[in-house]
Specification:
- Helices cover 31% and strands 19% of the residues.
- It is an alpha/beta fold and 294 residues long.
- The protein has a single domain, classed as LigB-like (Protocatechuate 4,5-dioxygenase, Chain B).
- Helix 1 crosses helix 3.
- The longest helix has 16 residues.
Length: 294
């Protein structure tokens, strides 16, 4: 069986426009691997940009939704524009080119699959609620690269599920375990976040070569934990959230939690880091769990 964590750059949605960034062809390759070799019957995605409640999961249970342009709440050094785009919170953001607010993605939901997910969560003792919510850029920015509608469309339903609104690695690991059986039916589980994500230090590192020490050390520690024997993987992954550099790598751990969901869903399948890049206060590692069909 196969599932994958697709760790994009959700906090700066230029990933779908910045074709020269090294991650761009990596995401394209992952997308083609999924559509051409795995050929999923559906995709379930967990994004760092949807945290529901500390003890309750939310999921999109309708077939058609809009997009949510919740990029940032402060000017970005990526695009120091004076132009402001004011919307009602939590959709207040500004400082990006107009094209960012016109992004599209032709996602098709599946209410029946969403209902099945709720049953699985209930069986695992996890409270959930279905609702209508647009896809956030933690999904559509990276998916527009990996699953370009024109050149590599994702021709199957897509259901987005939230994270918990907490930083509990074990709770998110169990969340993945709760939906693991979906993989037996050809459903690919994707998590989108970042392995190191510190926006506080972004401005200080912008335009400078190299990476901050914690971006390298924490990313390397995560690799060791994710690639550990599945029998001890959960314990090792939980331990890294208590490292001395963990709060530097993730002042708030929302962008880290998706990899715990994917690892939990992987069961006895080993994880492997397929690519990474250390850049400023970020790390971009991609992980795969399970085998890819020949």
């Amino acid at each position: 069986m196969f599932d994958v964590t697709l760790l994009t750059r959700p906090s700066q949605p230029d990933v779908q426009y910045n074709t020269k960034h090294p991650v761009y062809p990596v995401l394209q390759a992952i997308g083609k691997e999924i559509t051409q070799k795995v050929k999923p019957k559906a995709v379930v995605v967990f994004s760092a940009h949807w945290q529901a409640k500390p003890d309750e999961i939310h999921l999109n249970n309708v077939e058609k939704t809009d997009l949510i342009y919740e990029y940032a709440v402060a000017p970005s050094p990526y695009f120091p524009s004076n132009k402001q785009h004011q919307l009602t919170p939590p959709l207040s953001f500004y400082g990006f080119p107009d094209e960012f607010y016109k992004a599209t993605y032709p996602a098709r939901g599946n209410p029946a699959l969403a209902s099945e997910i709720q049953v699985l969560l209930s069986n695992a003792g996890i409270a959930s609620r279905g609702l209508k919510r647009g896809l956030d850029h933690g999904v559509f920015s990276g998916f527009n690269v990996a699953f370009d509608p024109a050149t590599n469309p994702l021709d199957c339903p897509l259901v987005q599920v939230s994270l918990f609104n907490n930083e509990d690695p074990d709770a998110h690991y169990r969340l993945g375990q709760a939906v693991a059986s979906l993989r037996e039916r050809g459903v690919v589980i994707i998590g989108t976040g970042m392995t190191v994500h510190n926006l506080r230090d972004l401005r200080a590192t912008w335009g400078k070569p190299g990476a901050l020490p914690y971006a390298v050390s924490f990313d390397n520690a995560l690799k060791e934990a994710v690639e550990a024997d599945p029998a001890v993987r959960q314990e090792k992954m939980a331990a890294i959230t208590k490292r001395g550099d963990a709060r530097q790598a993730h002042p708030w751990m929302d962008h880290l939690m998706p990899v715990y969901v994917a690892a939990g869903a992987a069961g006895e399948d080993k994880g492997v880091q397929t690519w990474t890049k250390h850049e400023g206060s970020f790390a971009w590692a991609q992980y795969r769990f399970g085998d890819v069909p020949a």
